[in-house]
Amino acid sequence: MRAALSGATLIMAGALLAGCQTSNTSDMIRLDRAQGSEENIASLSAVIQSNPQDPDAYNVRGTAYGRAGEFRRALDDFNRALQINPRFYQAYANRALVYRNMGKPAEAVNDYNAALQINPNYDVALIGRGNIYRQAGRTNEAFNDFNRAIQAETTDGRAWHGRGLIYQLRNQHAQAIEDFSKAISLSPSSPEPYNGRGISYLALNDDENAFADFNHAIDLNDKLAESWANQALVYERRGEKDKAAKAYNHAARLDPRYQPAQDGLARTRGAATDG
């Protein structure tokens, strides 16, 4: 391992750390063509038609609408489910996730609060609220929510991933690596904790393990700009500017708004082009 980070490399790592802190969306609704398909929604509608007072049916169809990106219809279904059963804490948490996807974090927090008033140990609501707090810079509150979910014996890797990101912000990288490793053991197909752990490895000058994590994140999902920019940083630290430029360029093409990729490309521009 290297003895110390140079000033320029420290700035680069800090920029990627900032990107890692803000780009994670693993707790957001991911559009799912299967679950949000017209056929699936039609079958759920048939269930509701046969039993219009079943809150579970509205909750499930609301989730399907959310995965299809039909957020207004999703809200209508969750509202109906809660009218039928005001203590349906899962529906509050599902509606919160839709609000978050709509860019309404205050409404989302209100719904997570409502879910937790009914079930104080509901890990989905703790993790969801924790991620909103973390992205708002309310790191102590976020840390407490992730801790509560972990103490409630959640099996959701996002709790450890979220807490790891906060340890990382606090420069407690050994603890962060432990949490990211736990997240990976629970969610091995998710690239986010590999990126998070790699950044902490970089902070500890363990480039070899960092590079392995970034490459594995790319293997899991080669459409994330963050993973390519992270890989590029290792190449840049090694002095392999041509490979770094290609990776930064690829990251910038995947997400032109991802600032660490743009900054890295500016540093290495001219070394190579992305073919």
UniProtKB/TrEMBL annotation:
The keyword NADP does not apply. Residues 253-275 are annotated as: Disordered. InterPro entries: TPR-like_helical_dom_sf, TPR_2, TPR_rpt, Ycf3. TPR repeats lie at residues 55-88, 89-122, 123-156, 157-190, 191-224, 225-258. Pfam families: TPR_1, TPR_2, TPR_8. Keywords: Repeat, Signal, TPR repeat. Coiled coil: none annotated. Residues 1-18 form the signal peptide. PANTHER family: TETRATRICOPEPTIDE REPEAT PROTEIN 6, UDP-N-ACETYLGLUCOSAMINE--PEPTIDE N-ACETYLGLUCOSAMINYLTRANSFERASE SPINDLY-RELATED. This is Tetratricopeptide repeat protein. It comes from Rhizobium oryzicola.
